[in-house]
Amino acid sequence: MSLTEVIGFVAGFGTTFAALPDLLAMLKRRSCKGMNPTMAAIMGTFQILWVYYGWLIGSRPVMVWNVVAVAINFLMVGSYVHFTRLERK
């Protein structure tokens, strides 16, 4: 693995897991208060484009970190839907 890829993996780590504290807080309090599903959906959409871009340029760090970020955003939107339904009852 080249130094460029190592730097890409390290840089991607920080940006990928930036949303994780919000997801964990939402799961801990079992509420979607304070969460903006539109932001998560927009981020997820553009992260899918980043995965495609990473594939086009052959960059493993771009693809790997954005696949993880898409999964985190998918969990955030799924949790939002779940907790919204619970709060309506």
UniProtKB/TrEMBL annotation:
Keywords: Membrane, Transmembrane, Transmembrane helix. It comes from the Bacteria. The keyword Membrane applies. InterPro entries: SWEET_rpt (IPR004316). One of its GO terms (cellular component) is membrane. The chain crosses the membrane at residues 6-27, 39-57, 63-83. This is MtN3 and saliva related transmembrane protein. It comes from Nitrospira tepida.
